[in-house]
Specification:
CATH topology of the largest domain: Ribosomal Protein S5, domain 2
Radius of gyration: 20 Å
Oligomer: single chain
Bound molecules: cytidine-5'-monophosphate
Number of helices: 11
Distance between the termini: 31 Å
Length: 310
């Protein structure tokens, strides 16, 4: 009888702290189309979540507060404009719940790096507050709220490898059969503003070279890094290189060090290199670090799941 009662009860709010881990993303394919009347560009992209993580801890509180440590501390506003706060408020508004929580963000994903760190944190906040408040929304419901907050956020709720369309907010999973890809990231000294990169893309004539992602999707299924290397594409790369000509040197440094391919991640300025396997990635990272071409070098495996309660 007790068991039945337990079973029938609606989902309970969490009393202890809720910890959520969320990955960074790179774009394996990014085709940028025309600017739309709303200012966003029509995209066809292949998102890929990689094992470089931020973490949000949510605790009960009487108001909504945000503290942080790690990457970007002191540079990021922790007020109402922060995407984490906006995500918590959006979930509260949608569910009729009080927006009461003490949120703490532990950041490893560099900010304004083309890795969707801010979007990742918003996704983590949605998942954390959903659990803390016991709102019990489905992943699809959360993705719907996520879409109102930013183009990349629904993908970071989902994770893995996924096709993104619309302005990037419409995502569908791509099943790649469990193969792990090995990446090396060259993180720049200073971030780039995403709107500025899109604006530069338009000013340079809105030229697209990426075409359809069909070749990339076939390469993912083949699970051969040498084949995948030939199909990575990013229409924002030229704009990022225009704004940061020194990124050309970073790309060359990685290729000289033996990377199978290199490309700017999203709107940049992070440059991502494809390695053969884990050992190759470690060697490549060490070589790249020795060139002093960038602020930091990281290795990461993909795909990994999206925002998840630990
Ligand atoms: O959606 P999100 O807030 O991440 O977008 C940040 C900015 O990037 C937008 O304000 C817009 O300038 C640009 N953007 C775009 N087209 C997209 C996605 C983003 O022009 N599909």
């Amino acid at each position: 009888e007790d068991d039945d009662e337990e079973f029938d009860r609606p989902r309970l709010a969490a009393h202890g702290p809720v910890r959520v881990r969320v990955p960074a993303k790179i774009n394996l394919h990014l085709h940028v189309g025309a600017a739309r009347p709303d200012g966003f560009h029509e995209l066809t992209t292949v998102y890929h979540a990689i094992g470089l993580y931020d973490e949000i801890t949510a605790r009960r509180g009487d108001t909504l507060t945000l503290t942080m440590e790690g990457e970007g501390t002191g540079q990021l506003s922790l007020g109402e404009d922060n995407l984490v706060i906006r995500a918590a408020r959006a979930l509260a508004a949608e569910t009729g719940h009080d927006a009461h929580a003490r949120l703490h963000l532990k950041k490893q994903i560099p900010i304004a790096a083309g890795l969707a760190g801010g979007s990742a944190d918003a996704a983590a906040a949605l998942v954390a507050c959903d659990q803390l408040w016991g709102t019990g929304l489905s992943r699809d419901d959360l993705a719907g709220i996520a879409a109102t907050l930013g183009s990349d956020i629904p993908f970071l709720v989902l994770g893995g490898t996924a096709l993104g369309t619309g302005r990037g907010e419409l995502v569908s999973p791509i099943l790649t059969g469990g193969h792990a890809w090995h990446w090396v990231l060259a993180v720049a000294e200073e971030g780039l503003s995403t709107p500025t990169v899109y604006k530069t893309f338009d000013e340079l004539g809105a030229q697209s070279e990426a075409g359809t992602p069909d070749g990339l999707l076939a390469a993912l299924r083949q699970k051969d890094p040498d084949v995948l290397a030939e199909h990575l594409a990013n229409d924002l790369q030229a704009a990022a290189l225009h704004l940061r000509p020194e990124l050309r040197g970073v790309l060359d440094a990685g290729l000289d060090a033996g990377a199978l391919a290199g490309l700017v991640s999203g709107s940049g300025p992070t440059v991502v290199f494809l390695a053969e396997d884990a050992r190759h990635a470690a060697l490549l990272a060490a070589d790249l670090e020795a060139t002093n071409c960038c602020r930091a070098v990281r290795t990461a495996v993909g795909p990994v799941p999206g925002a998840r309660v630990l």
